[in-house]
């Protein structure tokens, strides 16, 4: 790498944390223009000088010089979190990391030792769109953002700095969540973050949290609050709390939290008001009722509001017509014609995702499908895999009890491990057997989603590696380079069941 054209710097970048000239080389990429900067880093557009490399990328430069020892400590932690996040997490709506470089440039002390994260390049940020008004395609953007958040939380991670600047839009309009510098892995019910953040998107409890040796104690519900603020802006073009600047808006939010002001929702589309109200619940305890998986369901429902929201007169007329049709034609009210809207207890629930003729108990079909599609968005975690693991673990026996191994229920959970995979508001105490399927099956989806990125680089069939990791651990499968020999009989049972359940 070389110094490049220092004259390529502009007044725009004069006060950036890392100033990089046009033409500067990082591996096979050459800097072509600045994109954006924050308190702790600078992002530049770069193009490939090699046909073998990604042609257009974003380079995120994290500084090491001109900082105090305390700042350097914060920066090192943030860099480590960002790199760890990119290495452990993989989802269609998370920005893709292409590599990490450390600059070796003794001729330029400003750049020598700087860490550079190479990322796929987006078209623009959601913030750039919202500066002009509501997002033209807000419902779709919010659904994809909710998918990313459900994956993060299901994998045991909190983003910690969710805001429109970190929600990127690709050339095709799809969403990518970026910037994991403030992300943290959740240990039990909490994680820890440094005392920094974006004021407009900070949950109320983060403003009053006490600083410990590990940082501020945070919960997943803080991300839910940030989503609520983003959703309000995306749908209306305005913040949910009035004020000329971030400080004034923070004061307005505090008055709302204290019960002095109502939440202004007049300009929010009616179908979205409940979503935003639950996200912006004033206290953590109330907000925790909406975990990320539930939020994703609410967002999807808001995009397709029920026709029952019409006038009472129309509802009465519709009901009368329905009664006449049922009486005249002799049809069952819930007769199913192959759509995916069958009742949850139906043997035909989502036949496009899970075969209906292979002995999967009817009462568990919806739980199985939702464990794979709503609790997780990783491509390797699908309904046939969830069903196959349940078949291999218990033969769908919800009352299974194996005290010698401390395993119980349809998914053979041990109480301690199950506790870590429950929604945040349920993790304060260790669950006591028996574990109902309504608890066990969604937790299986969350745990598979947590394991998937940890074994995706292991050779072999990823789904079978996942099954082995569920029975043991991700590290066991990585160390064995695949399915350990002692688990072959178990994995063969999973494979046989998977082949029976998958829709060809």
Automatic annotation (TrEMBL):
Keywords: Kinase, Transferase. PROSITE patterns: PROTEIN_KINASE_DOM (PS50011). Residues 29-307 form the Protein kinase domain. The keyword Transferase applies. InterPro entries: Kinase-like_dom_sf, Lysozyme-like_dom_sf, Prot_kinase_dom. SMART domains: S_TKc. GO terms for molecular function: ATP binding; protein serine/threonine kinase activity. It comes from the Bacteria. The keyword Cell membrane does not apply. Pfam families: Pkinase. This is Serine/threonine-protein kinase.
């Amino acid at each position: 790498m070389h110094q490049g054209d220092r004259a390529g710097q502009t007044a725009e970048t004069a006060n950036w944390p890392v100033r990089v000239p046009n033409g500067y080389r990082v591996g096979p990429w050459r800097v072509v223009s600045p994109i954006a900067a924050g308190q702790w880093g600078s992002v530049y557009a770069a193009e490939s000088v090699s046909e073998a490399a990604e042609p257009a990328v974003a380079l995120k430069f994290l500084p090491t010089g001109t900082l105090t020892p305390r700042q350097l400590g914060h920066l090192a932690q943030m860099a480590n979190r960002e790199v760890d996040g990119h290495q452990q997490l993989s989802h269609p709506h998370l920005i893709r990391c292409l590599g990490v470089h450390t600059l070796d440039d003794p001729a330029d002390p400003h750049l020598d030792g700087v860490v550079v994260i190479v990322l796929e390049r987006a078209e623009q940020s959601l913030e750039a769109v919202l500066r002009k008004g509501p997002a033209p395609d807000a419902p779709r953007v919010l659904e994809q953002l909710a998918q990313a958040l459900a994956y993060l939380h299901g994998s045991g991670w909190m983003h910690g700095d969710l805001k429109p600047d970190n929600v990127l839009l690709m050339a095709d309009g799809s969403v990518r969540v970026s910037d994991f510098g403030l992300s943290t892995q959740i240990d039990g019910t909490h994680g820890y973050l440094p005392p920094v953040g974006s004021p407009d998107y900070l949950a109320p409890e983060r403003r009053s949290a006490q600083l410990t040796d590990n940082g501020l104690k945070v919960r997943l519900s803080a991300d839910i609050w940030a989503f609520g603020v983003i959703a309000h802006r995306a749908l209306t073009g305005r913040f949910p709390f009035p004020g000329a600047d971030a400080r004034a808006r923070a004061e307005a939010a505090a008055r709302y939290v204290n019960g002095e002001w109502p939440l202004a929702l007049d300009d929010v589309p009616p179908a979205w008001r409940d979503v935003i109200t639950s996200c912006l619940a004033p206290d953590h305890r109330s907000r925790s009722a909406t975990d990320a998986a539930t939020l994703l369901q609410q967002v999807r429902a808001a995009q397709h509001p029920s026709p029952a929201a019409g006038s009472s007169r129309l509802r009465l007329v519709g009901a009368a017509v329905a009664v006449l049709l049922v009486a005249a034609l002799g049809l069952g009210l819930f007769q199913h014609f192959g759509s995916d809207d069958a009742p949850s207890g139906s043997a035909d629930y989502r036949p496009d995702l899970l075969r209906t003729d292979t002995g999967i108990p009817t009462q568990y079909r919806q739980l199985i499908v939702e464990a794979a599609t709503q609790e997780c968005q990783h491509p390797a975690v699908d309904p046939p895999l969830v069903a196959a693991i349940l078949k291999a673990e218990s033969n769908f026996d919800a009352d299974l009890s194996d005290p010698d191994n401390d395993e119980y229920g349809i998914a053979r959970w041990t109480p301690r491990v199950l506790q870590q995979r429950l929604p945040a508001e349920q993790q304060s105490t260790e669950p006591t057997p028996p574990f109902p399927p309504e608890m066990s099956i969604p937790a299986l989806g969350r745990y598979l989603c947590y394991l998937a990125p940890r074994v995706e680089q292991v050779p072999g069939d990823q789904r079978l590696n996942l099954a082995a990791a569920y029975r043991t651990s991700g590290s066991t499968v990585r160390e064995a380079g695949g399915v350990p020999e002692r688990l072959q009989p178990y994995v063969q049972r999973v494979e046989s069941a998977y082949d029976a359940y998958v829709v060809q």
